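Memo to structure team: turn this sequence into structure tokens by end of day. - J.P.
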Amino acid sequence: MNITKIGLLGELRAEYALKKRGIRILHRRFQTPHGEIDLIAKDGDVLVFAEVKYRPLGRMGEGAQAVDTQKRRRLRYAASRYLSAHPVPFFRFDVVEITAAGVRHIPNAF
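Reply from structure team:
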């Protein structure tokens, strides 16, 4: 299986986990020239920009650690592009980590 298919599988698992928590998915793979947001969702009145880290053979924490300063900068840029077209008063950045141990949703990750 190639990297793109593996990433898509992780995003589908993350989407399922978020939906089970009552979070509604609005967009998948929102693209900008300088970055991508894996999932954009709505949790009540809060818009959620979710970064998915799929580490099928990894341990809990490895995926979240991969969301470093540079990745956060790209996510913030992509979110600003989205918000310029879809303004909302409340939003947050979440990480959904999928490892051999299971799925961990980290609201307000940064």
